[in-house]
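writing this on my phone so excuse typos. first protein, seq and then structure
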Amino acid sequence: MEIRTSHESVTTPDGAMPVYVAEPTQPGRRPAVIVIMEAFGLNAHIEDVTRRIAAEGYVALAPDIYWRSLPDNKVGYDELPKAIGLMQKVKDPSAVQDLGAALDALAKRPNVNAAKVGVTGFCMGGRLAFLAAAELGARITAVAPFYGGGIAGLLGKAEKIRAPLQLFFGEKDAFIPQDQVNAIDAKLKELGKSYTIKTYPGTVHGFFCNDRPDYNAPAAADAWQQLLGFFRKHLGS
């Protein structure tokens, strides 16, 4: 599907947040997907994922969660300490506020069906996707976190989640031990949530990202198809 892209900004209570938008050129109102970046910033990989989602028929928007740290707010995959420093500056209330502003911006677009909005995110963004499911759940239709470090620490908020969840993890992820994945599974099951957990054998953190040394092509290809199937089921296309 032919798409167009643009660098725009979204108004938040704290200022203007840059966003990357990819959308089909064909007319009509469509479901939307928010793509939340990794700890390394709104980089080429996240923009690529945003375009890929748009090519499937969605209006896709990636917010720059590090906008308060502009201009030096993107780091390489070999600069983990700097990425952690940026990530630690992000406070949950501000992130929820930013994601709410992104939802507001999508709702104002004439080509968006605001009743059908999904969220996906990677690494830090996976955790924030889960947080958004809890704190902004009435406005979100489906949520798909990829290797969201820290989700286990958010389980106290899980009762508020309304949207179905599709969670992706790597079996050998050094940042997300399997006991945390098991705790997430147990809590969501206890609460009777609609969810699926997919753990890929032998994979580590960042397995979906083809710009990282830990990229696992078979797992990434399968996860992509799982993600699309999940969004088609709950959002349409």
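second protein below, same order as before
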Amino acid sequence: MIYDVRHVTTYSYDAPVAFARCALRLLPRDEKHQRVLSSRLDIKPLPVSRNERQDFFGNRVVDVSLETAHRQLRVEARSRVEVRRDEPSLLRTSPAWEEVSRRAFASHTLAPSSPSHFLYPSRLVPLIEPITLYAQESFPEGIAIIDGAADLMHRIRADFLYDPKATAISTPILEAFERRIGVCQDFAHVMIAGLRGLGLPAAYVSGYIRSFPAPGKERLEGADASHAWVSLWCGPEEGWIGFDPTNDREVANEHVVLAIGRDYDDISPIHGILLGPGEQEIDVGVDVVPWKGA
């Protein structure tokens, strides 16, 4: 499947901003099941410096500096991405979760994709006993790791209420867990915390998911949104498998990967500093549409 992705972020300020320096993670990454056919990033006002690099986990980062006084910053990312994932086989098997944990802790590599980086607490995903105990219900002794992860994903979808007004980026994970409410970021963090509490390596993935309008309704511009899910290391044979607790499904061809890290703090789409007084408002619009060809 080939998608055209458009992600527009607009910052509006109460007063002119004299200087800003930002790290932008808004360009999709190439990986095993995904190929970036084209991508570009348009920034207004124009930055005085701009440099693209890869961070430790292989995410594309564009560092920019702005020295023109401005009351609005507009960042538009456009990409064309080909996604090719195989449908999960009904006959597949996976090792017991205890064996995966043992092999993860025995890993001798510190390469970016090593499970070693995703076993331990991170800034936004501490290990919290109630969350570990919640996850443990899905992992009885000897259960296959994929089966246990799928059950945990099902339970989060059933137990938690999706409410975009209930939490913010700064909401602690324990608060979202205790209230059983939040958005995709919260659900991913809760699932990751539970898995890591059991000694299983889990990564945070940001990206997009293709949404479909209700029958008889036209698709609305900007109706799609940035998304987040979990990638779980299921052993060297199975590798990393994506689980989307918000939608209660394994990651499929509707998912486009933007960046991977230990939690949201590693992959924040726009992160930086600015020099200026007053408050700011943020408006974000995302479109993910199938490519219609030349």
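The first helix runs from residue 97 to 105. thats all i got for now
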